[in-house]
Structures are given as C-alpha cells and as structure tokens.
Prior knowledge:
The chain contains 15 helices and 38 strands. By secondary structure, the chain is α/β, with parallel strands linked by helices. The protein has 4 domains: 2-95, Chitobiase, domain 2 (2-Layer Sandwich); 137-317, Glycosidases (TIM Barrel, Alpha-Beta Barrel); 472-540, Sandwich (Immunoglobulin-like), CATH 2.60.40; 551-705, Jelly Rolls, CATH 2.60.120.1560. The strands form 9 sheets. An 8-stranded parallel beta barrel has the order 6-7-12-13-14-15-16-17, surrounded by 6 helices. Helix 3 (115-127) packs parallel to helix 5 and helix 7 crosses helix 10. The radius of gyration is 29 Å and the shape is flat. The site of zinc ion (ZN) has 7 residues, from helix 9.
Amino acid sequence: MRVLVIILVMMVRILPAPVEVQERGGSFRYDPSKVEFRLDPKAKIPSEGYTLDITRTRVRAVASTPAGLFYAAKTLEQIADQAGNDAIPCMKITDYPRYSWRGFHVDPCRHFQSVEDLKSMIDIMAKYKINTFHWHLTDDQGWRIEIKKYPRLTSIGAWRTEWDGGVHGGYYSQEEIKDIVAYAAERFVTVVPEIEMPGHAVAAVRAYPELSCTGEPVGSFSTWGSPDIVMCPGKETMFEFLDDVIAEVSALFPGEYIHIGGDECKKTRWEKCPACQARIKAEGLERTADATPEERLQSYAVKRMEGILAKYGKKLIGWDEILEGGLSPNATVMSWRGEKGGIAAAEQGHDVIMCPQKDGMYLDHYQGDPKIEPETISGDNTLEKVYSYNPSIPVKGLQGNLWSEYIYSEAQRQYMFYPRAFAIAEIAWSLPQNKDFEAFCTAVDRACQDLDARGVNYHIPMPEQPGGSYDHVAFLDKATLEFSTTRPMRMVYTLDGSEPTATSATYEKPLEFSKDATLKIACVTSFGKLGKVRTITVEKQGPKPALAVEAGEHGLNLSTTYGFFLNWEDIPATAFWTAPFAVEGLKEIPKLEPTHYNMMGLNFYAAEATGYVNIPKDGVYVFSTVFDQLWIDGEKLIDNGAEVKKHSRHDSSVALAKGLHPIKVRFLSNVQGGWTTARNRGEVLYRRVEEKDFHTLRTDRLYRPL
Length: 706
Ligand code: ACM
Ligand code: ZN
C-alpha cells in the first residue's frame, strides 16, 4: 500500500511546478468539511504564494493574499484531478511565483476574438497561475474598444473590407469590457489594455483623418506590415484625442498600467510634416549621437503620454522602441526585439517585462516544421524553446505574445496558443532549478486532456523529416524516411492506406522503401489522441530524361495578363495574355508592378514563365517554392492552390537526369489572407535529396528556348 501511495505522489505533476513538494505518505479522502483555506496577511508567505498541507485527516491552505489562496485551490484541484478524490496523496507544498508579471497577450485587431473565446483563455490561463492579460485593442486593421466620445473609432475603425470582398471586424462595447475585466479579476488576472500610438494607428486615422500629418482620407487597411500612415505629434489634436481616449480607458481598467504601444512607428511622414518639424524646433529635439530628431519627437510624445496617464492615476508601459530618443522617467519596458532593450532599460533603473520574439516568447511564430505547419508570420519557437527561455537579467516578469495576422479562426488561435502558453505559465512561475522538460511534457498532456474536455484546440506535433518535410518522396533504388517530433511523442503509421490509430505500428527507426508505397504517419499523445495524419506518397522513379535540345540565352520567357485571381483556374479563357517577353530570372516575376503598403488601387496580374532548367547531375531533387505552381517536364510538381503563400508548404521531389528539362512557373500577384504575394522573393529552391540545404535556382541554370 505504501509503495502504491509513493507512486501516486510521483505521478502527480502540478503545472506550473511548485517551489517545493514534500511527500508525506498516505492519502486523504476528499471531504470538503476537512479542507481549510486560511487567509493570514501576517504569514511569512510571499504575495501570491501559499502553503498547502495535505495530511490523512485534513487539508490546510495558508496564504497572505487572496490570490495565494486561489492558487492553492488551483493546485489542489490538479492534485485531486490526477489522483482521484479518494486518494489525494499527502504532501506539503510550499509555493510562490518567480515573477510578479506572468502575462499573455492577444491581438483581436488583425482577427477579432469573441468575448466568450477570450473568457475561455482567461479561465484556462488563470488555472495555471497566469496573472496578467495584455489586451492589444487598437492597430492598423481594427480599433476594438468603444470610446463614447469618438464613435467613428468603432463605426468605421472596427471594420475593414477584405480582399475577397467580405467585411471583417468587431469591437468590444464598454459593457463587454467591464464584463471581461470583472471575469478576469475573479480569477486574479489583471487586464492591461493597449492603446497604440503613434504608429499602428491606421484604424484611428481612418475614423479621424485629422490625427495624421496630412489629414487626407485613408481607405480600409487589409494587409499586414507597418504603414507610414501614423499619428501626428506635431499637432495638439493627437494629444487631445489620446487624453480623451485614456480618460475613458482608465475608467474601464482598474489595473495600474496602460500600454501605449510605441512600436514600429515609421517616421518618414514626420520628416516632411510642417507641424512635426515645427514641434521638433520648438522643443529643441535636435539630432543627437544616438537619435534622429524624429526619434526624439516620438520620445517627446511618449513622455507626454506618461503625463496624461499619470493624470488618470495610471503607469506607462510600452514596447522597447520607447527607449529610442530617451525613455520617459517612469516607463516600464516590454522587450520584444530580443533582450537588448530590456537590458538597457534595467540599466537605467526601469522595470522590464521580457518577451523576446526569437527566444520563444512570440506564440505567433512556427512551433514545428514550416513546411507542414499552417502558415504563420515566421520564426521557430517550439514548445521546448519556449520552455527553455530564461531571462538573462532580473526582471519584473515574462509574457507570451500571440499576434493574429495569420490566425484565421479561433481554432487556429488556440492551436498556436496551447500548449506553448503552458510553457509561459511554468517559466513565469516556477524556479529555473525545478525545470524539467520531460516532466513538463507529462503535465502538458494532462492539461491537453482538460482542453479536450473544454472543446479547445491545441497543437499536437506532426512527424517531421530532417531538412524539411515533404509529402511526395521520389526515389531511384531505395528511400529511407526518417522522422522526428518537436516534443517527446510516439509516432504511429500504416503502409496499407488505412488511417493510423493509437494501436498502429509504432515508428522506432527510419523506414526503408524499395517499391511504391503510401505511408500514413501521425503522433499520438500519451492519452491516445492522434495529431494530424500525414500522407506521404513514396514513388520509385526512373530519372526523367533530359531533352536533346539546344538552349538559347539564360533567362525565361514570360507572359502576363492583368486581373486579381486567387486560383490559376479562375483566369478566364478569354483573358488577354501578352506575347512572351524575356526575363533574366525568377526574381523579376513578382516585381512587375509597383507595390504599396496596402496595395489599394494597384495592378494585380497572373504570370507564366517558361524555359529550360539545367539539372547538374542525375538524381532525386526536392523542390520548394511559394510561386503558385511549378511544373517540370510538363508535370505539375507543386501547386500551392489558393493558400496564403508566404512560406512553401508543398515541397515535392522528382528524379531527373542531368541536362535540360522544360520548366514552367506560374505566379498570381494577389493578396490572400492579408499577405501580398508581390512581397515574395520570387524563388524556386532545390536540393539533391541527400543534401541538407536548398540552393536557389539562379539564372545560370535557366535558359530560354531558341
Ligand atoms: C511588436 O511585435 N511589434 C511589438
Ligand atoms: Zn506631423
């Protein structure tokens, strides 16, 4: 019996890991009358900390703050869930947080999130002792908070016309905001609203054009990026507007902070704006060794914001750009472009929240192989990388940020958020010496079962191939397929075309093929749930013979037709195509027309390039591209369909003999899901299957027909 109890204790893994767990032996049979929660403000327990003492006869939680008791209850809930109410293992837990700011951030501006979905996130994060919710409420593509004095912010600024003709938008009424704030407060989560200034403010400028330097009308903004249309700190109008907005915002959010953004503000218009230049002159904002006059103008504007916030009893927090041109006296800095800004701010005696994007804190970045994961902005923040982050200096806290440019549904938002948000919760609460990735992963599996019970989506890794995954594997004599996962997880597969299940063959070592096959492979969680099944066609090929032709000059022949098409098949048969003209290479194809920050009123087109590609030697080649289609030897090798084409997600392979092969590349200049294909590099990448790295298909391998 004793042995059994010890096993039970060891099986309990609380998320986030507590500071100290002492096993007592024995178990407690759950009885609410024997559970005591004692609030003792004089107890020597750090704020938000608690002790939880479980003996055979009773449970006693003690904390010096109500939040501490709340967290004790959350811990007890996890223990009871894992052990069962009849055998809660006896133990004494001493626990307190590493950081006082344990945050998560969401962006309902790029893609709106409902109150209900937001409450679900707050509820789940509070369960894992997250205490701060950073709500990014305004941006170029949408203004999401009702401001009674400026109704056009939401009647106009909350809605945008999408490229497919649809309307996207939404906003939170002040009543809904109060509801969310109260819901969060019941769970000891403080809501920090972000009102972006002076950049990322097109939605506000659309509603009130007088806020910008030129005052000219601005259309719907439905692409991603940092436009040069920003607020004008040369005019008093901007400060009067922001003062009015902050007056309403500060009344809605009882927390001590308001986030003023401050990031990625393009200052090109300020350089030409008489009001901005007059302000620079009047305030003596000359160029210094480390700041331009316009950077100092932004710093001037942020300092005035600090004054406005102080008037309403609020403290200022902003992105690390607020360091440029000089930090305002009491600002807290949120360091996102690495830790550098945070370190500089700390050296000046300021509070710092660390959320360096490339160190795992940006949850909008890829969490697995970009070749098969859904489109994201970029990056490589696997669960393990998020978990491994440890700030290099003492800071006030940590935060995970979830921007939503490429998040087209709530299920997708959840997929990006969980389970990486659990890693944020653990590293923000637990001491680094208690970190253990394998143990954390077992806790994640439990937390994911809870997500299933709530109907919430999450990421389960996919089996990934080294060097980049692809689903069409050509081979000459034999193929060896190797797979790995981004966190420890069993892989199951079938070779008979049937869908794998948790009891299918387990992948143990690389799979060898000498004839055609269909491999279906997926990861399976410890509780038997399968992730997305990958279907991989393995095909024996003879190398496609080269053409016995004379090639012309280097380059390709290009033909184009104007129009906005999302699918190649949508181009009408009657479309007028230009006669083929010579281009030097692939790079030119997406760059035939000027581009603009939001692409409004510009020319979109379809282009087809044809010619020959010179293959260096016999072998199997893997190709990769974000062009719409790639054809080799008259066969379509890659078809990216109507997907968002920022990263290649349909790599493929083919066996080719040394020499010239017909190549055809098709490109649609369009905007899909906010991504402008004209911003693509115009590349086809290739590698021999045994090589690790891709090469760019350059002009010296491309020929125009004679
Ligand atoms: C940011 O990601 N622009 C703060
Ligand atoms: Zn201006």
